[in-house]
C-alpha cells in the first residue's frame, strides 16, 4: 500500500512528529516517482537544496526540478530566477505548463506554507492543483497530479490539520514502536468508505523503501483487537436464550387459534375484490362434532 | 409568500361553499364582490406548482426533500422559503447522497436548480445524480430490497402474529407519485432528464479571482459572489414575483455544497477566532431573506465537525430553519458494536422550524438510524437504544 500511494493521485498528506520524522519517507517517495519516469517538482522551503539532494544519486538529482524558497523566501535579492508569487505562484505555474504525463509535486513543508500563508488560500491552491483534470478550457489530456505534502502536526492546532486532512485523498500518519517505524495510511476515495492500513517500513540509506512485516500487521478497518465485541445480552436479569429442549417444546405447542397455512395464505394474499365471503372452520381439539341437536334431550 | 397564497385559498373555498349554499336558496349570505370567472385567475387561488403540496398541519407549501422517509420526519416535506442544513458526517460519504437526492427530485418535478460548490464543478455533480425509480417498479424493487436483507431469525414465519408478515419494515406513509420519489443510488440519472431541466451552476474557482482584497467584518468575497448570483437568478427568472412569469410558476431549488469549508475562503474551519468569523452567519441571514421572498427552497451541507468555534455552530443552527446531523459509524467504536450492525449511522434531527405556528412539528421518535443499502437510502427507527 505504501508503495502505491502516488498511483491514486491527489493530495497525499504525510503527518510526522518529532519522534518519527517524515522527510526521509518524503524523499523515498520522491525517488520512487522519479525512477518511474514522472516529472518531479520540489518546493523546498524548510531545508536547503543541498541538504535535500543529499543521499540521491546523480541521475535522480538530474530529474528533480527544484524550486528553492529556503535561501530567499521573500525575494529580497530580486533575481530573475525567483518565480513571482512565491510558493503559490510556483504551484500554479507548474499546473499551467505541465505536459501530458503524471506529475508529482513534493511540498517540503506544508507547515512552512501554513505559517506563512493564510490557510484558506493554501487549501484553495492545493485543491486547484490536485484536481487539475477538472480545469476548464484545457482540451489536452493532462496527466494526473500527485501532491506530497509534509505536515508537522505538532506545530498546528486541530483546525488547519483538520482542514487539510479533509482535502487530502490519502493521509499517512507516521508512528512506530521500539525503533520500528510504521505508517498508518488512511485512503479516502470519493463516495466510498475510507480504508485504512498500517504498514511497517524502514528507509534504507539510499532512500529506497523497505516494507516490513513488523511486530503485528493489522489491516482490518478500524477494529481494536483488545476490546471484544460488545454482547448486549450479558448483563440482563432475564434469560434471552433458549436451550434445544426448550425450543422443541415451543415449536410443538399447539396454539389455540391455529389456522392452517392455506387459510393464512388466502387471507394474506391481497385480493382485488371479494365476490363471496368464505368461512374457514377448523375443528379444535375439544370440539364436539356431533350433529345431533342437544335440545332433543329435553323432556318437555 | 406561501402563507399569503394559502390565506387566499381559504377565502376561495369559503366562497365556493357560499356559492353552493346560495343555489339552494336557504341562506341569506351574499357573496361579496364579483367572483373571478373562469379558472385563469391566479389571485386567490391555491398555487398549484408541480411537485409541491400544502402541509396538512399549517398550510405551508412543501416540497419533497428527495427521501420520502425524511419528508415524513420533517412533517411532510421542506417548506418553501426555508433552509435545510445538513451537518456532514466525518468522511463526507452520506451527506452528498442527500444533497443529490434533493437535486434529483427537482429535476424529476421540473423545478429550476441552482447548484453552488467550491469543490466540484456543478455539471459533474448533476451527472452523478441518482436515477429515479419509476412508479410501477418502485414498490417492487423496494420490497425486494427489504426482503433481501432478512436475518435468519426473521425468516421463520410468524406463528402467532402472522398477519404482520407482509408489513414493510419501514413506515412509508402514503406516497403519491407526484410528491416524493425513490431514488436508486447505484444508477445515474438519464442524460435526457438533465438536458431537459433548467439549471444554473456556480463554481467558485471560476467566478472569483485570487487577488481580491477582503475588508474586515464583511462577507468573504466568495459569499458575496454567491449571494449576488442567487439574487440575479431569482430576479431574472421571476421567482419573487417581480417579473410576472408567463409560463407556469415554478420553484427554485438551491443546493450549496460544503459551505464554510476553507475552499469557500472562509476560515472558520481553520482558526478559532478568525478575522471573518461573522461571514458565514451573515451569509445565512441574507440568504434566508432572499428565500423568504421567493418561491425557493435551499439545501446546504456544512462540515460542522471541522468548525473550531462551537458558538458558530450554535449560531448557524439558529439561523437555519431545519437542521439535520449525520453521524456515520465509520471509524468510531460503534462500528463493531453488534447493536448497530445493521446500520451505517445515526441521523439527528436538531431543529425543526415553527413556521406561522406556535409549536413545531416534531416527530415522536428521536432515535433514528440510517443505512445505505445497495440501492436505497433508508431511515429507520433504531429500536435498540
TrEMBL record, chain A:
Principal location listed in the UniProt entry: cytoplasm
Keyword tRNA processing: yes
Known pathway: tRNA modification; 5-methoxycarbonylmethyl-2-thiouridine-tRNA biosynthesis
Compartment(s) of residence: Cytoplasm; Nucleus
Keyword Membrane: no
Record's GO cellular component terms: cytosol; elongator holoenzyme complex; nucleoplasm
Single GO MF annotation: tRNA binding
GO biological process entries: positive regulation of cell migration; tRNA wobble uridine modification
Pfam families assigned to the protein according to its UniProt record, in alphabetical order: Elong_Iki1 (PF10483)
Region (Disordered): 265-300
Similarity comment text for this entry: Belongs to the ELP5 family.
Name of the featured protein: Elongator complex protein 5
Gene transcribed to yield this protein: ELP5
Automatic annotation (TrEMBL), chain B:
Pathway: tRNA modification; 5-methoxycarbonylmethyl-2-thiouridine-tRNA biosynthesis
Domain of life the protein comes from: Eukaryota
GO biological process terms held by the UniProt record: tRNA wobble uridine modification
Cellular component terms per the entry's GO annotation: cytoplasm; elongator holoenzyme complex; transcription elongation factor complex
Compartment(s) where it occurs, according to its Swiss-Prot or TrEMBL record: Cytoplasm; Nucleus
A matching Pfam family: PAXNEB
Key words, A-Z: Cytoplasm, Nucleus, tRNA processing
Region annotation (Disordered) ranges: 23-47
Protein task: Component of the elongator complex which is required for multiple tRNA modifications, including mcm5U (5-methoxycarbonylmethyl uridine), mcm5s2U (5-methoxycarbonylmethyl-2-thiouridine), and ncm5U (5-carbamoylmethyl uridine). The elongator complex catalyzes the formation of carboxymethyluridine in the wobble base at position 34 in tRNAs.
Similarity field: Belongs to the ELP4 family.
Quaternary state and interactors: Component of the elongator complex which consists of ELP1, ELP2, ELP3, ELP4, ELP5 and ELP6.
PANTHER family given in the database record: ELONGATOR COMPLEX PROTEIN 4, PAX6 NEIGHBOR PROTEIN PAXNEB
Official protein name in the record: Elongator complex protein 4
Amino acid at each position: 500500500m505504501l508503495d502505491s500511494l502516488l498511483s491514486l493521485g491527489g493530495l497525499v498528506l504525510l503527518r510526522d512528529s518529532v519522534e518519527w520524522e517524515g522527510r526521509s519517507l518524503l524523499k523515498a517517495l520522491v525517488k520512487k516517482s522519479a525512477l518511474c519516469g514522472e516529472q518531479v517538482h520540489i518546493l523546498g522551503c524548510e531545508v536547503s537544496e543541498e541538504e535535500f539532494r543529499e543521499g540521491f544519486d546523480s541521475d535522480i538529482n538530474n530529474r528533480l526540478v527544484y524550486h528553492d524558497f529556503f535561501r530567499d523566501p521573500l525575494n529580497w535579492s530580486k533575481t530573475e530566477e525567483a518565480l513571482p508569487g512565491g510558493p503559490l505562484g510556483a504551484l500554479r505555474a507548474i499546473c499551467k505548463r505541465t505536459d501530458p504525463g503524471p506529475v508529482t509535486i513534493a511540498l517540503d513543508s506544508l507547515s512552512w506554507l501554513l505559517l506563512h500563508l493564510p490557510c484558506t488560500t493554501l487549501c484553495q491552491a492545493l485543491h486547484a492543483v490536485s484536481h487539475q483534470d477538472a480545469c476548464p478550457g484545457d482540451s489536452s489530456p493532462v496527466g494526473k497530479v500527485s501532491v506530497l505534502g509534509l505536515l508537522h502536526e505538532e506545530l498546528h492546532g486541530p483546525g488547519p490539520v483538520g482542514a487539510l486532512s479533509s482535502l487530502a485523498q490519502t493521509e499517512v500518519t507516521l508512528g512506530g514502536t521500539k525503533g520500528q517505524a510504521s505508517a498508518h495510511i488512511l485512503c479516502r476515495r470519493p463516495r466510498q468508505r475510507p480504508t485504512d492500513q498500517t504498514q511497517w517500513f524502514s528507509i534504507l540509506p539510499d532512500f529506497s523503501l523497505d516494507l516490513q512485516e513488523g511486530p503485528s500487521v493489522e489491516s482490518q478497518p478500524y477494529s481494536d483487537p483488545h476490546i471484544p465485541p460488545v454482547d448486549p445480552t450479558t448483563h440482563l436479569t432475564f434469560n434471552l436464550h433458549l436451550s434445544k429442549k426448550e425450543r422443541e417444546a415451543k415449536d410443538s405447542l399447539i396454539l389455540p387459534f391455529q389456522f392452517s397455512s392455506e387459510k393464512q395464505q388466502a387471507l394474506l394474499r391481497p385480493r382485488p375484490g371479494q365476490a363471496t365471503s368464505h368461512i374457514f372452520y377448523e375443528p379444535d381439539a375439544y370440539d364436539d362434532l356431533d350433529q345431533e341437536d342437544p335440545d332433543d334431550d329435553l323432556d318437555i | 409568500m406561501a402563507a399569503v397564497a394559502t390565506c387566499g385559498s381559504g377565502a376561495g373555498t369559503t366562497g365556493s361553499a357560499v356559492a353552493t349554499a346560495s343555489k339552494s336558496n336557504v341562506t341569506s349570505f351574499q357573496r361579496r364582490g364579483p367572483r373571478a370567472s373562469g379558472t385563469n385567475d391566479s389571485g386567490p387561488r391555491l398555487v398549484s406548482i408541480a411537485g409541491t403540496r400544502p402541509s396538512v398541519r399549517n398550510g405551508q407549501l412543501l416540497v419533497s426533500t428527495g427521501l420520502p422517509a425524511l419528508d415524513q420526519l420533517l412533517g411532510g416535506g421542506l417548506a418553501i422559503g426555508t433552509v435545510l442544513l445538513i451537518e456532514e458526517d466525518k468522511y463526507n460519504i452520506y451527506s452528498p447522497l442527500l444533497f443529490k437526492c434533493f437535486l434529483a427530485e427537482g429535476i424529476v418535478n421540473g423545478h429550476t436548480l441552482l447548484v453552488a460548490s467550491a469543490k466540484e464543478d456543478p455539471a459533474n455533480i448533476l451527472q452523478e445524480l441518482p436515477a429515479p425509480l419509476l412508479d410501477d417498479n418502485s414498490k417492487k424493487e423496494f420490497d425486494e430490497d427489504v426482503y433481501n436483507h432478512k436475518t435468519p431469525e426473521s425468516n421463520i414465519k410468524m406463528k402467532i402474529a402472522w398477519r404482520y408478515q407482509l408489513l414493510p419494515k419501514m413506515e412509508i406513509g402514503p406516497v403519491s407519485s407526484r410528491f416524493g420519489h425513490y431514488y436508486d443510488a447505484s444508477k445515474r440519472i438519464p442524460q435526457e432528464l438533465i438536458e431537459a431541466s433548467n439549471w444554473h451552476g456556480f463554481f467558485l474557482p471560476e467566478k472569483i479571482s485570487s487577488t481580491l482584497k477582503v475588508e474586515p467584518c464583511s462577507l468573504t468575497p466568495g459569499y458575496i459572489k454567491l449571494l449576488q448570483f442567487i439574487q440575479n437568478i431569482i430576479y431574472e427568472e421571476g421567482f419573487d414575483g417581480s417579473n410576472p412569469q408567463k409560463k407556469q410558476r415554478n420553484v427554485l431549488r438551491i443546493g450549496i455544497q460544503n459551505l464554510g469549508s476553507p475552499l469557500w475562503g472562509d476560515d472558520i474551519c481553520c482558526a478559532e477566532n478568525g478575522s471573518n468569523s461573522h461571514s458565514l452567519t451573515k451569509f445565512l441571514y441574507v440568504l434566508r431573506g432572499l428565500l423568504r421572498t421567493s418561491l425557493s427552497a435551499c439545501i446546504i451541507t456544512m462540515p460542522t465537525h471541522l468548525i473550531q468555534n462551537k458558538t458558530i455552530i450554535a449560531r448557524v443552527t439558529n439561523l437555519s430553519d431545519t437542521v439535520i446531523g449525520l453521524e456515520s459509524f465509520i471509524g468510531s467504536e460503534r462500528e463493531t458494536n453488534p447493536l448497530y450492525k445493521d446500520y451505517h449511522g445515526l441521523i439527528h434531527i436538531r431543529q425543526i422550524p415553527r413556521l406561522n405556528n406556535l409549536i413545531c412539528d416534531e416527530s415522536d421518535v428521536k432515535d433514528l438510524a440510517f443505512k445505505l443499502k445497495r440501492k436505497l437510502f433508508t431511515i429507520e427507527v433504531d429500536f435498540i437504544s
